[in-house]
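Operator note (shift B, R.M.): manual run for Membrane peptidoglycan carboxypeptidase requested after the automated queue skipped it. Running by hand, logging everything below so the morning shift can see what happened. Input copied straight from the record, untouched. If output looks odd, do not overwrite the archive copy; leave it for review.
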Amino acid sequence: MAQRNSPFFDTATTLGKILSFFGIAGLCGVLAAGLLIPGAMVAGNAATAGIEAFENLPAELSESPLAEPSKVLDKDGTVLATFYAENRVPVTIDKISQNMKDAIVSIEDERFFEHTGVDPRGIARALINNLTSSSTQGASTLTQQFVNNVLINDAASKGVDQSQITFSGNKDIQDKLREAKLAIAVEKKYSKDEILEGYLNIVLFNGTTYGVEAAAQRFFSIPASKLNIQQSAMLAGMVQRPAAFNPIKNPELTLKRRNLVLAKMLDNKKITQAEYKAAVKSPLGLKVKEIRSGCYAAKYANNFCGYITHLIVNDSQFGDTVADRTRKLYRGGLVIKTTLDSRLQKEAEKEARAAIPANDSSNLGTSLISLDPKTGNVLAMAQNKIYSPQDGTQYTEYNFNTDRATGGSGGFQGGSTMKPMTTLAWLESGNNMWDEIDASRDFYENEFQWKASCLARGYTNSIDEEDGGWNVNNASDGFKRNMTVEYGLYWSINTATVAEASEIDLCKIQDVAARLKLMSPTYTSPATGEEIQRAANPPFVLGTENVTPMATAAAFASFANKGTRCEPRAIESVTDAEGNSYKAPEVSCEQVLDENVVRNLNGTLSKIAGQRVARNTMDDTPIAGKTGTSNGAAATWFAGYSTGIATVAWVGRNDSNAPIFGMEINGQVYDYADSATFASPMWLAYMKDVIGYYPSEDFGEPDEAPGPTITPIPNTTPDSSSGDEAGTTQVDDGTTDESTDNNADNG
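Run finished. Output pasted below as returned.
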């Protein structure tokens, strides 16, 4: 607002002090009008005390920014969710219809353009009315009401509890004196149009609807600039008692109030007799548009929205405390542009819910998450459960895709999706995919020494106090024999992966997983609090550790991106109502694997995805991936990708690691299940619809064996088996029980 100076108001001059004295002496004598106290009780003493108190009151109005809604947008600018404590859309005075300006002045302060902030005539009128009739009148000018609203806004923006804020109905003389002095100061500083603009933007109309633009949109679905006479009269009438004059809940009372405003507009010659007659005969004519607040109200991408809110409230640049950051989200007018592709999101939600409905008696969860391998941008994040705090198995606020710090469940046993890490370590150690290994061995005695250079002894043992060693099982018979590394990975043979691990350094496998940020290289023992290297527990190579779908997607996206891992990124930019920009995560990528090593791995993973999962239905698009199943199919996975999109599908229990065998799921009883039962079909149904949005390239040809291999990969998949290893997570090698404990609670 532009400053307007007038020497008439300058209390530093003699004239100003005299005017202030008489003005405040009179004011103190009649302030009782607003307090419903007999004037004779306060006229003398209050006037004297009031002058002294008035001189000591602040003369400068502290104006915090108006609370404005924050918006979360997808990558194309579509609004996903709106957050507000006060739904408000500030507009300039020229964007408010003249009808609305006339209506509010007529009903709230008809002498607005004549007084100087405090209206002695209005105070006297209210005093006489309140002393001589059973009805009560207020005497606050629009400027005083503006001041009162600014004080309330300032307190709310600083986190003051509402019980500590002085509202209109509980003011004492000191409050009214302060309001009056500040109103005079505001009139010195701002023009009448500026004050009217400020008032119409700050005032409460109903519930959480603040400001005339939001009110016009809320009740008539039009901008404030288009408000006609009767619409303006209705809105102007609401501000006196927003809860009572609610056109949705109390239409008759609101209509009566509207017609009173129309009569005042006629008295003040703001409308003609003909306009009055036409307006007063008209219905309220509501066209209500509800703008609900928060992630629960979002039409889609609710869980992704929740993830975004966690990123904001965990980021110190938005405030010193969580309360400050939350207040910034709900009051700061943030515009948060995200990386989400709504085309993919809607498809992901459809398929995640179709695979297993949210209210299915099995209570199984499903999730799909897609990343752009070249940027790490989160393109979709979906699950079957409904994002809500309500009771019932169909509802949850946990995000199955993310970690606990961002509202996630903390992950699930990765099963065979971990096996490529062993193969990568094998290749990095100078070996080949066609190398032959002995997959017949299914028992590693207590004394067997697993090479682990990161441990103090340089090795670890597979000790099991009951069995005397580690029993390694396969899901299907007939695979305990010599085979190539490629064959073992293709069919996801446990004994093959363990045979590889027994010949190389476990710490190299641990390091691959750490470079890909699939899991940290150490974990804290729940029993002792001691930091333990994952390599100390050989079964981790079969996926005993919990991993999140997001971390898994980022790891497999690295395979799609020639060994370059990009940090998952969900926010592109953030600005606030004041025009400030905040630091958003930049694209952050790092080469963590040798391109040739990844090319050779992709040679096998492309066969898994193309021949076993897609069954040659996506021949035109190069795809690759790995299945995964934990013990009892408590967690089933498919992590698949093209060079354009990396997507992880997960289906399983979010409440325990108990087997799902024998359960009725989606109307059918399953005595056996693995990744081919739910996760892989869900991935395929989704990717077939969206893979074309992001063009793909070939992965490159893998190195070829110098001669024929002993176990060539078949071109078809037996219908009787997906080849994925249920029973992959033999979690206890007898050395420690940490791996079991780490998976005890998925949230």
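Quick read of the result: The domain at 88-281 is CATH 1.10.3810.10 (Penicillin binding protein transpeptidase fold). The two ends are 52 Å apart (CA to CA).
Leaving this for review. - R.M.
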